[in-house]
Automatic annotation (TrEMBL):
This is P-loop containing nucleoside triphosphate hydrolase protein. InterPro entries: Kinesin-like_fam, Kinesin_motor_dom, Kinesin_motor_dom_sf, P-loop_NTPase. Belongs to the TRAFAC class myosin-kinesin ATPase superfamily. Kinesin family. The lineage of its organism: Eukaryota, Fungi, Dikarya, Ascomycota, Pezizomycotina. One of its GO terms (molecular function) is ATP binding. Residues 624-636 have a biased composition (Basic residues).
Length: 824
């Protein structure tokens, strides 16, 4: 089942009544429930974007309506053993906390208190209906992720360690180590605990929202049903994500900026994960933030509902578009609906001997992008279904786990006799394919009960427990990182083994008499193979780690660029300048970025140059900045950006990003129909690819230069401008003529090839990280028998993390004054 995504538009607050409303709910057909959000194009008011969701709640929707339609139907599933995850997503001040927590009045109560109230009620009913044979226990965990650290909200703040609670991967799931859990008897008990815990939550006033949440808050409600010695456990997770925010609007101070950066980064990573899953990418960047790691969107089984909160105001225009875009893609994430295993309280039976290893092997569910499918039922339909006690519904997202289960006695997987009757599948293609039918269940006492489980639990690593018929089933195309690593390991071992075998045969042929006693060479060979495999895998890990660090930096920098562009769109040059300055440390020495900063500074006046953010640019050598300014001025004629006079209001030269999202002739277009809808991030990537991919070699930057040159020819005066063309070619001229023979180039290469960190760091533009990355990479090349020597400047430019600009700076730094710079 795919993640169910619903949108909720909040009403105007008192102070907002005179403000411009631009977001509205709509239905596909008159009289049908709302399933569309409509918003005008920021470029052209006459044009409107439409985003389709599984349900849309307009300003008049009450807390009760939302809960009844979107949450209540899943409580039954929770008691059937499915994990349920509900999370609120949206820009700061759009109503996430209102939706999840709500107000104090009964009618204003949000999803969380209503959920608990329903859970207690249903628990009591079950106990009553079974004459006390089944008992239901509820326990809570509550924690927050603040500045990318996890803190237990059930513990007083003074008990916190600065680094927070660690995360660990266990049985294919991410667990928070050391998280506390409190039993909760009834609603009063819950309210007391919840209010106390919320006092611990880090909140801080901002201009935008006096009680803006500065952390992601995760409430985990564990429901344990015990009948005799059979225990069924399931979890409902209610997550109130912190809101992304534009620091210019909030006028955040320095501390708030750090919080904001952490919040924005994790949300940005979440959007990247959503995009990656919906595209079917093999690598989903979960590990780049704790929040995404814990959520593991699309990786856990159960039911997930994402509530997108929206403010209807024009002042949120770009933010709203951005979150509409992300969440409309989240619909395509498919998650399996799998009930949690039932366990016995008592010791394991004979048949359960392998359980430990079975649990240990539980791998994350492979991900599959759900091409164009989405839930067909609306919230209202869902509510009607529930009322009629019809088959319950599908859904999905992510669950949160603690590792408390480790303390339990070894569990025994139970089969059909103790499982609830399988629910009738909803007639959607995906759920019907994924849901188990009764026919797949097996008697619990069967000696091979364990092997009967895999229809439900996809555990590909334990081949021995999977039936041949299941092995024959087609595997999903997506793979987890662990699977990829395992595959690489296997492949490397195979290649090495065959190479070694071939060598052994070759060696044996000419001198058979010289063979050592049987057994000894084999042992040596296998040891050599092991060493080789280990060495290669270590090299591979280093490379992956290296790539991840690059991506991490890139994400943060991208976020600032996106914010800068949004500020430009709003006409807020001061805010745009600050964002570009914040982005600078992530793309050091980038000529284009420096050019933007210079132009904005010039525009705003010299005074703007000296504020809190100066540190970011202060590190840039004056000579470089001067050179860059000259270059930028020359390049001006070829940039099709606003500051260059084309009047498209888009300094980044990517005015086409909206055009791509807009249907010609002002027709409405659904965001569901492709990925070419508005996406500020992608737009920045396109435009600023040169500083976003410093490590991808020269191909990209050359392309970029070419594009600029071409643009010049077509947009400036209609005739090619010699300046721009000359500019592109002169940029590298000095170092490209005869790179290896010039003494300066040889000097630079000698420093690089020395692998001496101190020397490399002394090069212009080389900080500690860049130098370390370079040395790591050279060592990696060496380990891979590719020599590990950099033979020319062109070769150096091709290395990850280098690029033309970096090499040029280092080269020029060597010439100026005959020494090397101090690095950035
Ligand atoms: N549906 C609604 N009905 C009435 N008031 C609402 C509604 N949604 C939000 N509000 C009000 O809007 C304001 C902002 O809402 P809220 O604090 O829930 O936003 P938020 O998205 O959680 O912000 P943050 O991310 O900063 O925590 C609050 O005053 C809240 O009471």
């Amino acid at each position: 089942m795919s993640v169910r995504v619903v949108a909720r538009i909040r009403p105007l607050l008192e102070k907002e009544h005179d403000k411009d409303v631009i977001v509205r709910a709509d239905s596909v057909e008159h009289g049908k429930p709302f399933t569309m959000v409509k918003i005008p194009s920021p470029k052209n008011e006459a044009e409107e974007f439409s985003f389709a969701f599984n349900g849309v709640y307009d300003q008049s929707a009450t807390q009760e309506q939302l809960f009844t339609a979107e949450v209540a139907p899943h409580i039954k599933a929770l008691f059937q053993g499915l994990d349920v995850t509900l999370f609120a997503y949206g820009v700061t001040g759009t109503g996430k906390t209102h939706t999840m927590r709500g107000g104090l009045k009964l009618a204003e109560r949000g999803v969380i208190p209503r959920l608990l109230s329903n859970v207690f009620r249903r628990g009591k009913k079950i106990a009553k209906d079974t004459n006390g044979e089944t008992s239901v226990d509820v326990a809570l965990s509550y924690y927050e992720i603040y500045n990318d650290k996890v803190f237990d909200l059930l513990e007083p703040p003074e008990k916190r360690t600065p680094s927070g609670l660690p995360l660990r991967e266990k049985d294919g799931k991410t667990v928070v180590v050391g998280l506390s859990e409190r039993a909760c008897e009834d609603l009063k008990d819950f309210e007391r605990l919840y209010i106390e815990s919320n006092m611990n939550r880090v909140t801080a006033a901002t201009k935008l929202n006096a009680h803006s949440s500065r952390s992601h808050a995760i409430l985990r409600v564990k429901v344990t049903q015990t009948t005799g010695d059979v225990v069924r456990e399931s979890t409902a997770s209610a997550i109130d994500l912190a809101g992304s925010e534009d620091n210019r609007r909030t006028e955040n101070g320095k501390e708030r900026l750090v919080e904001s950066a952490a919040i924005n980064k994790s949300l940005f990573v979440l959007s990247q994960c959503i995009d990656a899953i919906s595209r079917g990418d093999k690598r989903v960047p979960y590990r780049e933030s704790k929040m995404t790691r814990i959520l593991s969107l699309g990786q856990n089984s159960g039911i997930t509902v994402m509530i997108l909160n929206l403010a209807p105001l024009r002042s949120y225009h770009l933010d709203t578009l951005s979150s509409l875009n992300v969440s409309s893609r989240a619909k395509r994430i498919e998650v399996r609906e799998i009930e949690n295993e039932v366990v016995y309280k008592q010791g394991p039976r004979a048949a359960s001997a392998n359980l430990g290893s079975l649990q240990g092997s539980a791998a994350r569910q492979p991900l599959r992008a759900l091409a164009n499918a989405h839930n067909v039922h609306t919230g209202a339909v869902m509510a009607a279904k529930t009322a009629a006690d019809k088959p319950d519904k599908p859904v999905k997202a992510f669950s949160v786990y603690t590792d408390k289960a480790a303390a339990k006695p070894a569990a025994v997987v139970v089969a059909a006799s103790v499982l609830p009757p399988s629910r009738t599948a909803i007639p959607t293609v995906n759920s019907s394919q994924l849901r188990r039918s009764n026919s797949t269940k097996r008697p619990s006492d069967s000696a091979d009960a364990l092997s009967s489980r895999p229809t439900k639990l996809a555990r590909p690593t334990h081949q021995s427990l999977v039936r041949p018929s299941q092995q024959a089933q087609p595997q999903p195309l997506s793979m987890s990182a662990e699977q990829i690593e395992a595959m690489v390991e296997k492949k490397v071992a195979e290649i090495l083994a065959s190479r070694a075998a071939a060598e052994a045969v070759a060696a044996a042929e000419p001198a058979p008499a010289a063979q050592e006693p049987a057994g000894a060479p084999q042992q040596q060979q296998s040891k050599a193979l092991e060493d080789e495999v280990r060495r290669r895998l270590e090299a591979l890990e280093r490379r992956i780690d290296h790539d991840e660090r690059h991506d991490d930096t890139r994400s943060e920098g991208l976020r600032h660029l996106l914010q800068a562009r949004q500020a430009k769109e709003r006409g807020d040059d001061a805010a745009a300048l600050r964002s570009y300055e914040l982005a600078l440390p992530f793309f050091p020495g980038q000529a284009k970025l420096l050019g933007k900063i210079d132009r904005l500074r010039a525009k705003l006046g010299a005074a703007a140059a000296g504020d809190d953010f100066q540190t970011a640019t202060a590190a840039t050598p004056r000579a470089e900045r001067k050179r860059t300014r000259t270059r930028t001025r020359r390049a001006k004629t070829c940039c099709n950006d606003d500051e260059d006079g084309n009047g498209d209001g888009n300094e980044d030269g990517n005015g086409d990003c909206y055009a791509a999202a807009s249907s010609p002739g002002g027709k409405h277009r659904s965001a569901d129909h492709g990925d070419d809808v508005y996406d500020g991030t992608e737009a920045d990537v396109d435009d600023d690819g040169s500083f976003l991919h410093p490590g991808r070699g020269t191909t990209k930057s050359r392309k970029h230069n070419q594009r600029n040159t071409t643009t010049t020819t077509t947009t400036a005066t209609g005739t090619p401008t010699a300046t721009a063309t000359t500019n592109n070619s002169t940029t590298k001229k000095g170092i490209d003529e005869d790179p290896t023979s010039s003494p300066r180039a040889a000097h630079l290469l000698a420093i690089v090839n020395s692998r001496d960190l101190r020397l490399i760091r002394s090069l212009h533009g080389f900080g500690a990280k860049k130098a370390q990355d370079l040395v790591d990479h050279l060592n990696l090349l060496k380990a891979e028998d590719e020599g590990g020597e950099v033979r020319s400047l062109a070769h150096l430019r091709m290395l990850p993390g280098m690029g033309s600009r970096t090499v040029e700076r280092a080269y020029e730094g060597l010439s100026s004054g005959g020494g090397v710079g101090t690095g950035v």
